[in-house]
Design a protein that fits this description.
It is a single chain. This protein has about 190 residues and is mostly helical. The protein has a domain at about 80-180: Up-down Bundle (AhpD-like), CATH 1.20.1290. It is about 60% helix and about 5% strand. The protein contains nine helices and two strands. The protein has helices spanning about 30-35, 45-50, 55-70, 80-90, 95-110, 110-120, 130-145, 150-160, 165-185, and strands spanning about 15, 185-190. The chain has a two-stranded antiparallel ribbon. Helix 1 packs parallel to helix 3, helix 4 (about 80-90) packs antiparallel against helix 5 and helix 4 packs across helix 7 (about 130-145).
Length: about 190
């Protein structure tokens, strides 16, 4: 029996799809084209191979994801984008995405105490003011976009986030609201064997 992972951790679980991923050897030309731009330089994940069943969507998803999370010059730092993804993923209880992005956040910042607090207190985490503002805004957007009120925006401005940085944070949280729900619908996190 496969053990489903249901607690937050930096140990990235295996993602077990409910749908069979496409077989690269039998992939169509459009599926192969869509798979050429993957979110990272690692092997193509089962998640992306499941998404390849709809190559017309995947061909747009991967560049959009890469632009939002890896960005270009200026805008929000990579670690703050990761924290936005963690806020959305924690709120949505997406164990897999929370683990991936918490691990990346720690790799970028070495700030394990931020992640430990989020894992222990979840949406009630008590973080340093900048991280708190980013985390709270991401949670508010994840719960209901209209819940991200003036107070959440003011908190970001108090922390000197520019309009471009706030836009980048909004995009990071928003894409994870979508990605979490999609990933949780298409599969589940399980313990690696």
């Amino acid at each position: 029996m496969t053990e489903i992972v249901n607690e937050f951790t930096t140990q990235v679980p295996k993602w077990s799809p409910h749908l069979k991923p496409i077989d690269l050897e039998n992939a169509t030309a459009l599926q192969l084209e869509a798979l050429e731009v993957t979110p990272s330089n690692t092997k193509i994940s089962d998640y992306v191979l499941v998404l390849a069943h709809d190559p017309e969507s995947l061909i747009h998803r991967n560049p959009l994801f890469n632009t939002i999370m890896y960005g270009g010059p200026g805008g929000l730092s990579r670690s703050d984008r990761e924290l936005g993804a963690i806020g959305a993923s924690e709120f949505n209880k997406c164990i897999y995405c929370t683990a991936v992005h918490a691990s990346r956040y720690i790799d970028l910042t070495t700030r394990t105490e931020v992640i430990d607090e989020i894992f222990e207190q979840e949406s009630n985490a008590d973080l340093p003011s900048r991280e708190q503002a980013i985390f709270n805004y991401s949670i508010a957007l994840s719960e209901t976009p209209s819940n991200a009120s003036t107070s959440e925006l003011n908190a970001l401005e108090v922390e000197n986030l520019t309009d471009l940085e706030i836009l980048d944070l909004t995009l990071s949280a928003a894409i994870f609201c979508w990605a979490n729900r999609l990933m949780e619908t298409l599969g589940e996190p399980v313990r690696k064997s």
